[in-house]
TrEMBL record:
Organism annotation: Geodia barretti
GO molecular-function terms, A-Z: kinase activity
InterPro entries, sorted: Leu-rich_rpt (IPR001611), Leu-rich_rpt_typical-subtyp (IPR003591), LRR_dom_sf (IPR032675), LRR_R13L4/SHOC2-like (IPR055414), RLP29 (IPR053213)
Domain Disease resistance R13L4/SHOC-2-like LRR: 55-196
Protein name as catalogued: Leucine-rich repeat receptor-like serine/threonine-protein kinase BAM3
Keyword Repeat recorded: yes
Amino acid sequence: MVSLEWLNLSNNQLDGNIPEDLRYLPYLTVLDLSDNDLEGNIPEGLGDLYNLTELDLSDNDLNGNIPEDLGDLSQLRELDLSDNDLDGNIPENLGDLSNLTELDLSDNDLDGEIPVELVRLRNLENLYLSGNADLEGCIPVCPALSGDGCDRTIPAELGNLVNLEQLFLNDNELTGTIPAELEDLANLDALFLGNSDENDDDNGPDSLVAIPVQCC
């Protein structure tokens, strides 16, 4: 088992906690435990699986915080933690996952502000943060500052995610205007901001009209 590279136990009726002993599978590249009845916290030891390229724990009953050591998975390309009961803040060091192409944290109970460090994910193609009712409205553009000294709007730096194809921020409590720099996202074909508080006023980029936007 120690040489195992691929483990897919999805769509079963597994329950209980995720075994912490999975950390002792150092050659694992794909771990898919989605669509089960797993509960409890995500074990922090998963951050030791340095060869992991895909991690899918979606559609379970997991709770607690997202472990910060997931930010150590430097080879990770796909991270799906959607449809659980995860709470707390999104770890800032997820912005260190430079190979990440898909990040899905939708439909949880995450709160706090979306970390601006995510704009460092230059290979990111799909970003799903929808359905987190307490994920708050402001993305600090200048993370070195705090309090009233920081611009609390959707950061223009999102325009640096040149490979982004889908951006889901709907069903949150986001505020502010849509930055014109999103016009630079030439590969973007879906932008969802529905049920947020962004303003799509005359200051917004005209090119967004061609993108399927919900209730902006």
